[in-house]
Amino acid sequence: MPKIKTHKGAKRRFHISAGGKVLRTKGPKSHLRRNKSSRVRRAFDKKIGTSPANAKRIKRLLGR
Questions:
Q1: Which parts of the chain have pLDDT scores under 70?
Q2: pLDDT for 2
Q3: Contact predicate 24/41, CB 8 Å
Q4: 3-state secondary structure of 48
Q5: Do 16 and 59 contact (CB within 8 A), yes or no?
Q6: Domain range annotation of the chain
Q7: What are the strands, taking DSSP E only, across 1-64?
Q8: pTM of the model
């Protein structure tokens, strides 16, 4: 059986932590950034987890 190819879009958007959690960045990070406060801009830099249902699908796309 051949290996499953990694989905390149998912590879760019998601990161799997050492503990196995699927992490992602928040969306409106760069669009109209100067109008947002520095507090909001810092919040966009943090990575957040995904729901368990989505995590299972994302791991499959990443070949894990």
A1: none
A2: 87
A3: no
A4: strand
A5: yes
A6: 8-61
A7: 14-16, 22-25, 47-49
A8: 0.75
User: DSSP secondary-structure letter at 26?
Assistant: -
Rounded Cα distance, 44 and 26, in Å: 5
Q: Would you call 3 helix, strand, or coil by DSSP?
A: coil
Domain 8-61 = CATH 2.40.160.40? no
| Side chain identity, residue 45 | D
How does 17-48 read in b/e, with b if 16+ C-beta sit within 10 Å? Answer: eeeeebebeeeeeeeeeeeeeeeeeeeeeeee
The number of beta carbons lying within 10 Å of the beta carbon of residue 14 is: 20
Looking up tokens 């760069």 gives 30
Q: Are strands 14-16 and 47-49 parallel, antiparallel or unpaired?
A: unpaired
